[in-house]
Automatic annotation (TrEMBL):
UniProt keyword annotation of Oxidoreductase present: no
Similarity section: Belongs to the EamA transporter family.
Protein name from the UniProt record: DMT family transporter
A Pfam short name: EamA
Transmembrane residue ranges: 28-49, 61-79, 115-132, 144-165, 171-193, 214-235, 241-263, 270-287
InterPro entries: EamA_dom, EmrE-like
Species for this entry: Streptomyces racemochromogenes
Stored PANTHER family: ACYL-MALONYL CONDENSING ENZYME-RELATED (PTHR22911)
Amino acid sequence: MTALFALATAVLWGLADFGGGLLTRRLPALTVVVVSQVAAVLVLGSVVLATGAWQEAGPQLWFAVAAGVVGPAAMLSFYKALALGPMGVVSPLGSVGVVVPVGVGLALGERPGPGQLAGIAVAFVGIVLAGGPELRGAPVQRQAVLLTLAAAFGFGTVMVLISHASTGITGLFLALFVQRVTNVAVGGAALWAQTRRGTPALPEGTGPRVLLGLLPALVFVGLADVAANGTYSLAAQNGPVTVAAVLSSLYPVITALAAFAVLKERLRSVQAAGAGLALAGTVLLAAG
């Protein structure tokens, strides 16, 4: 089950990142973060009420609050980096945050077998290559690299925190709700401060109409992201964190495939090779 949940996480994160990156080319990154997370809050609030998940409240929810503080900063950095591009560098670099949960798992005494260690190594190389690292061509802005690395370690930290925020399904709903409420509170405060300083929440010359037009995509990004957090938590609770973290970090493969399907971007040889290695690493991890 760990492999299944972790792979579902990779699909959801890959699609959410693809959508978020596209939206940030139309809207300010902070607006994308806040609006998409509001959609997640509304859906999760309904689920919490319907399941009675509020009864699972306990000290472990502080992990969800912490994840909610770190998450918006990581998403904002990543979406800005995706907008700066090139995505072929940003996407694979974003996966290096996997070292955080893997390191925590090893510190807690997890010891992957030889097959799993080989799978981790092969999958990680595949993740980087699948993003299609652009070794030639337009230079990469230093700001894009720094933003991506900050986002990567933020994502890794959120993975660790959210996996400790609940112990059951209903508790997970509550933890994700608390995380998203915190996301909106932190991101909303930052957006308000930004507008007070004169930076508009929407592109100049546009009004709420552009936001309404993009609302379905914003809702999708928010729900895909929160669903990915949920499936990752289930993966980490049902098996080794090291395995869950690496498999979940296959999302650059999904982002590259989404770009191919939607934007008709051609997969380069390095990307195809990376996807093959990532698949091979997945098989090794699942078999281990």
